[in-house]
Amino acid sequence: MYESTNLDLFPYPFHNIKEGSNYRYSNDLRKLEKDHTNCVVITPEYEKQIKRKRELLKEQPAVRFQSYPHTMAMQWEVVEMLIEMAVDRYPEHFQVEKNGNHWTFHNYILNETESFIFGDASSIELEPLDLIGRHFTTDFVLMVHRDDNLYLEVAQESYAALFSPHWNKGMTFDEIHAPVPFVSRTGVPLAERVRNFLIRNVLPGEPWTRINWNLMANRWDVNYETFDTWGPTRFLVTPENAGDLVRLRVEEQFFYRMPRSNAILFVLNTQFLAMKDLVLRPEWLNQTYSILSDIPKPMAEYKGFSPFIEPTVEYLKNLVEKIEFQTN
Amino acid sequence: MVYSNPVLFDKSVTIVEKFTVRQDCRKILIISAEPKEADAIQQLIDEINGQTEYELIEFNDETQLSHVNEILDQQKMGTQLYISAKWEDAVSIFAAAIEAGFSEGEIQTLISGKKKRYVYCLKCYHLQEAAAEETDIVCDHCQISLEIGPFFSRERKGYIGYPYNPAFATTN
Ligand code: HEM
Ligand SMILES: [Zn+2]
């Protein structure tokens, strides 16, 4: 399991929710500030996560990576952007040498070197995004802008919950979100609205972000492909073991408009925090307890945690009371 | 074939119980691949009643069907297409029409006999047919139990089949 050990790097999902308020779906996109647009983050779990990501890609290539043959140029554009971001933020960990189109990318954390001819897919064994994606702990999706919609044309995914590149390949933004009870506090359908918002506001050099969250019961991988395996384990949670078994699973999401292809690159940084670790930040514990106590049924059903939300809330309630008792 | 093209599936907006004439078009093209539906075709022609130019093309066997691309490619803008066929033939005529540039709004499809419905197993990625009323099915490739969901993929040409463990099935 890959729990976040550096809480300063953990994207706590409810920062922007007013104290005492509950959680409902909304257009919660926020524009990234000018000097915080870099999505490359190296956490203490970097090496463990990369190892697991590469295992998953190797064991289940068709589950984890999907693309169309016509996407090569768009993929190279992403390679260039990610390398620039990595070198810019962590020059001690990443370097690139460019001799014309002959590029050499160094990853000093893993002591690895990738050499290729930029733009020439025959110079590498994997597809460009699949290759560069294996150096970063995030998932990557390219949504291509065609006739007023966004279509999923490339995806490398190992961590995000309920996300199947294989199933979602070729789908529009709206089709992808069809299973989500995606309505606002007042019941307004959100998918079309959010899609139009993305198309209009995610512009070159102006990336946006939002945070998605879920709970998972003793399981890293929660995709539809393996529902038969993890589905039943959700019933094992009790108020006694929820602290260890249940984790807050958070996806910090980034949206970049690619200047050449006009596609939107969707980046997901997935992090985990065990319920018991919420005590490390008592304000997080209190707010998470309050929010989880008031989740609409369709949302809990969709997110897949209805079998263990009750024991989890019970666990948090006991923890909150214990801490209040200790501090009084 | 462009991946974002619509495909014919059991809930396709183009499938009709009965053809209806749209008077605002320049031409009506009728492709009839099912002789049993001659009455429906005659009714359509009566309804057109000479108001709009129409062309009736009748296919009686496979070899003729292979000309369908050619015929569809030659059509002018503003042509409305009426397809009368059994499921498999309708699927290929529909795909050829989309390829030739027809939009779903320009097509009506009358299926003779049963519409087919397919389920895509998310465990082993195998596509199989399922009866219209079925909500659960066993994958005939990997034997897993599948709950048939309401979401359809053009890319996979079937409805989502969620693998589940029947020993732990819940009622909700
Ligand atoms: C453009 C890139 C995006 C892609 C590729 C994407 C993809 C997905 C996928 C695959 C799912 C899971 C669907 C399933 O269960 O089958 C999902 C869920 C969801 N998406 Fe998106 N999404 C994108 C952007 C957004 C944006 C901008 C928002 C909101 C402002 C959003 C809101 C949601 C919500 C609320 C859920 C339900 C998640 C939960 O409650 O756990 N998505 N998305
Ligand atoms: Zn199967």
TrEMBL record, chain A:
Q: Which InterPro entries match?
A: HODM_asu-like
Q: So which domain of life are we looking at? A: Bacteria
What's a Pfam family this protein contains? HODM_asu-like
Full protein name = DUF3445 domain-containing protein
TrEMBL record, chain B:
- Please list the residue ranges annotated as the Dimethylamine monooxygenase subunit DmmA-like C-terminal domain: 119-161
Taxonomy, superkingdom: Bacteria
Classification via InterPro entries: DmmA-like_C
Name the UniProt record assigns to this protein: Dimethylamine monooxygenase subunit DmmA-like C-terminal domain-containing protein
